[in-house]
């Protein structure tokens, strides 16, 4: 079940100094679109809680990921509007005939936000860390293909080869959102076993560097996180001006969703996101009264879901979980649960109509991967009971027994 993600913007006026022009295309990526902006200003985003970490390897909570994302960059990026892959830190790449090897060539002249050069050694270090089981990086599972970790080999200072155990249709998409790490700042922490605890919100800004459009400027506990323009950022606009335009990106810590709405209504923040249906309705009313237009952008890529644990537990001493897995492994049981869920009622009551029911794990917002041939069976407790009976279940005193 996916709630529509609505983001509201009040953009400040931006103006300011010029930037370098005439930069080689391979060295610098060019932002899509012919629009050319002006420098200056800041954008304030309301978040509900403080980031727990500024370390891409340890970030699992939403606020941490939101703050980290503008400070990092990936090799190959998935465009969130077209859903196609496009060059990022990798200027280009090629695929072998058997679709098991990806040769990636990095952009030349790219620097981290502290001015240190970025090269293949940083990529090699990043994947060595991600694949190290002792680090427990949340991205590690994505890098296991055909039951084996991806192998990474340095071919030259700007070239690497990634080898997969078997062909994988979405292989180049694996590189999206995997932040490249600065070996010169993190290698010692990795070697002494403290990498997972590195880069807390209290770490001095000079000790943190990334490849995103912004870098850390200041952190005031309980108040805000301030990012400033990265003067070494590798992207330019259509006129060759180095991006970003904004001087600062500020994450204002509001505490709760209701507090986020109040700060937004008061003009303290320019952006609010991940609203519940009730607060969306509140802002709809106040927007009309103020003469503003509130636009529902439709379903996003995230979704709420119920899943069954089908992991192999044979080697673990978990008899109760193993017994329930025998239910989950029966397709009739899983279909019965699906038929018993009233998706339309959830959309109507929990989301006030601002959601889209799902019958698969890809949302309507993902136009490239959505399978529109999936069946959409109506809710039917009667059919659910028939399936459960066929699977050997029965009812006694209002309870279901296997």
Q: Which characteristics define this entry?
A:
four-stranded mixed beta sheet, globular, four-stranded antiparallel beta sheet, alpha+beta, 20 strands
Note down, in words, how this protein is organized.
This protein is of the alpha+beta class and 402 residues long. The chain is built from 9 helices and 20 strands. It has helices spanning 62-68, 120-130, 183-191, 257-265, 277-290, 319-328, 331-340, 343-350, 381-390; strands at residues 2-3, 8-9, 29-30, 42-47, 76-78, 85-87, 90-95, 101-106, 144-145, 148-149, 151-156, 159-163, 214-220, 224-229, 235-236, 248-253, 271-272, 355-356, 394-396, 399-401. Helix 2 (120-130) packs parallel to helix 3 and helix 7 runs antiparallel to helix 9. The radius of gyration is 24 Å and the shape is globular. 27% of the residues are buried. Mean pLDDT is 89; it is low at 2-25.
Got a strand count? Answer: 20
User: Which shape, going by the Cα principal axes?
Assistant: globular
The strand order across the widest sheet is: 4-16-14-13
Mean pLDDT: 89
The count of helical stretches stands at 9
What share of residues is helical? 10-25%
Q: Rg from C-alpha positions?
A: 24 Å
Going by helix content, strand content and strand pairing, the class is alpha+beta
Largest sheet: 4 strands, mixed
Give the H and E element order: EEEEHEEEEHEEEEHEEEEHEHHHHEHEE
How far apart, in Å, are the first and last alpha carbons? Answer: 28 Å
- State the low-pLDDT regions, or none: 2-25
Q: How much strand content do the residues show?
A: 15-25%
């Amino acid at each position: 079940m996916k709630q529509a993600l609505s983001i509201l913007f009040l953009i400040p006026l931006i103006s300011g100094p010029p930037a370098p022009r005439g930069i080689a295309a391979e060295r610098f990526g060019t932002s899509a679109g012919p629009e050319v902006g002006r420098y200056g200003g800041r954008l304030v985003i309301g978040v509900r809680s403080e980031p727990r970490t500024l370390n891409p390897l340890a970030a699992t909570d939403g606020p941490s990921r939101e703050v980290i994302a503008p400070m990092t960059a990936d090799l190959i990026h998935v465009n969130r509007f077209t859903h196609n892959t496009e060059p990022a830190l990798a200027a280009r790449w090629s695929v072998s005939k058997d679709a098991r090897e990806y040769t990636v060539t990095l952009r030349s002249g790219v620097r981290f936000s502290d001015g240190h050069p970025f090269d293949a050694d940083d990529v090699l270090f990043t994947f060595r860390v991600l694949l190290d089981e002792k680090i427990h990086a949340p991205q590690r599972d994505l890098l296991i293909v055909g039951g084996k970790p991806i192998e990474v080999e340095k071919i030259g200072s700007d070239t690497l080869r990634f080898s997969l155990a078997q062909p994988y249709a979405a292989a180049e998409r694996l590189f999206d959102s995997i932040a490249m790490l600065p070996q010169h700042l993190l290698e010692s922490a990795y070697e002494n076993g403290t990498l997972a605890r590195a880069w807390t919100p209290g770490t001095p800004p000079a000790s943190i560097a990334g490849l995103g459009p912004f870098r850390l400027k200041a952190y005031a506990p309980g108040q805000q996180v301030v990012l400033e323009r990265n003067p070494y950022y590798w992207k330019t606009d259509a006129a060759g001006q180095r991006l970003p335009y904004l001087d600062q990106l500020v994450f204002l810590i509001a505490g709760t969703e209701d507090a986020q709405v109040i700060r937004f209504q008061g003009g303290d923040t320019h952006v609010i996101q991940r609203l519940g249906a009730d607060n969306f309705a509140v802002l709809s009313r106040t927007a009309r009264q103020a003469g503003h237009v509130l636009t529902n952008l439709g379903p996003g890529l995230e979704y709420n879901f119920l899943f069954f644990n089908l992991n192999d537990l044979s080697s673990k001493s978990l008899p109760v979980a193993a017994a329930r897995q025998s239910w989950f492994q029966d397709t009739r049981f899983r279909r019965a649960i699906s038929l018993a869920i009233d998706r339309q009622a959830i959309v109507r009551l929990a989301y006030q109509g601002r959601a889209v029911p799902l019958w698969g794990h890809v949302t309507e917002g993902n136009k490239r991967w959505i399978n529109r041939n999936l069946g959409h069976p109506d809710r039917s407790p009667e059919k659910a009971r028939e399936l459960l009976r066929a699977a050997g279940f029965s009812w006694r005193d209002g309870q279901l027994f296997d």
